[in-house]
């Protein structure tokens, strides 16, 4: 179904693998427009409870409209999933039956010109998911050292021409700060070697640079790691955690944390994490045709088995 705020990806698969129980407590850590949350609620309402978290107030507002028929069994929290344990403490909830993450930005965030995530339209370089945060893309681009810019472009964008791009940014900002998405995108193209400059690209060269800056501004990989660790801790026996990632940096973190927890546990002892999806679940060609943004999605799911309940 097309949703103007965000069309959820792999919804049927998420619901199938989360194995929602009627009376369960479920957390959607990345609420967005509430698409996945609504499908979870269709399974658990009116006996279960859904906690929806998002650090973007616009997502919380959109989801509360979307979930209006379920609101007596929903708690919406505007926060970072990095604070998962604290959020549950505040709600006096100790264990949950399932947790879901749908990483990255929503279509709404990408499409809203003022949010400054996209170079398709010219706007102020912002890229914050949490609008109360001070640090944004403008501050990053105009204050990071050349060395730090190279590092984030290489690490989070896997960009071959990181050195050339970082060098040109530092050179240009000496005269005038780079404050708009178009200025930055044009500058990325200017920094490329002559042979790589064309009038048309399958993937615009600024895509990887914008991804890198977005990841750094929102500390996406650090929070994913911390949030996922906490998710594993708060899961109840046979509770499941599902994560949809959209690029290899995210997917690698999810895969490695699941593997580590399966092999040796993470944090508190006395449990095993069983990986349910040996290979990540990918969208069907039909889904990709209807929603091209789904093409890079990968869903991984694991189940927690608390060992002292096994032999009872
Ligand atoms: C891909 S969208 C989720 C879409 C959602 N599943 C739906 O059906 O509409 C990702 C959402 O996660 C939020 N988000 C990303 N990182 C977050 C974090 N660390 N803490 C809280 N929310 C986060 C973003 O603000 C965005 O709204």
From TrEMBL:
Q: Does the keyword Cytoplasm apply?
A: yes
Q: Which Pfam family, any one of them, does this sequence belong to?
A: Methyltransf_5
Compartments it resides in: Cytoplasm
TM ranges are: none
One of its GO biological process terms is: rRNA base methylation
What is the catalytic activity of this protein?
cytidine(1402) in 16S rRNA + S-adenosyl-L-methionine = N(4)-methylcytidine(1402) in 16S rRNA + S-adenosyl-L-homocysteine + H(+)
Primary role: Specifically methylates the N4 position of cytidine in position 1402 (C1402) of 16S rRNA.
Protein name per the record: Ribosomal RNA small subunit methyltransferase H
The primary gene name is rsmH
């Amino acid at each position: 179904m097309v949703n103007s705020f965000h069309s959820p990806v792999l919804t049927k698969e998420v619901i199938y693998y989360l194995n929602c129980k009627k009376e369960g407590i479920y957390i959607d850590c990345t609420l967005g427009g509430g698409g996945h949350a609504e499908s979870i609620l269709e399974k658990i309402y009116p006996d279960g409870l859904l906690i929806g978290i998002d650090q973007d107030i616009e997502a919380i507002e959109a989801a509360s409209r979307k979930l209006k028929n379920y609101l007596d069994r929903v708690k919406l929290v505007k926060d970072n999933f990095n604070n998962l344990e604290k959020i549950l403490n505040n709600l006096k909830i100790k264990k949950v039956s399932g947790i879901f993450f749908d990483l990255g930005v929503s279509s709404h965030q990408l499409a809203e010109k003022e949010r400054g995530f996209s170079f398709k339209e010219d706007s102020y370089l912002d890229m914050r998911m949490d609008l109360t945060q001070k640090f944004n893309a403008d501050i990053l681009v105009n204050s990071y050292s050349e060395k730090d810019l190279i590092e984030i472009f290489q690490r989070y964008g896997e960009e071959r021409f990181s050195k050339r791009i970082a060098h040109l940014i530092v050179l240009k900002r000496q005269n005038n700060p780079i404050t708009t998405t178009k200025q930055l995108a044009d500058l990325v193209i200017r920094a490329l070697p002559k042979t790589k400059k064309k009038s048309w690209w399958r993937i615009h060269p600024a895509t990887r640079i914008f991804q890198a800056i977005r990841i750094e501004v929102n500390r996406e990989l650090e929070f994913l790691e911390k949030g996922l660790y906490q998710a594993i801790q708060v899961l109840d026996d046979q509770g499941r955690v599902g994560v949809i990632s959209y690029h290899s940096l995210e997917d690698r973190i999810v895969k490695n944390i699941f593997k580590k927890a399966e092999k040796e546990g993470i944090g508190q002892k006395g449990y095993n994490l069983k990986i349910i999806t040996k290979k990540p679940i990918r969208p069907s060609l039909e889904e990709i045709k209807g929603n091209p943004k789904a093409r890079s999605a990968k869903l991984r799911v694991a189940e927690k088995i608390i060992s002292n309940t096994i032999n009872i």
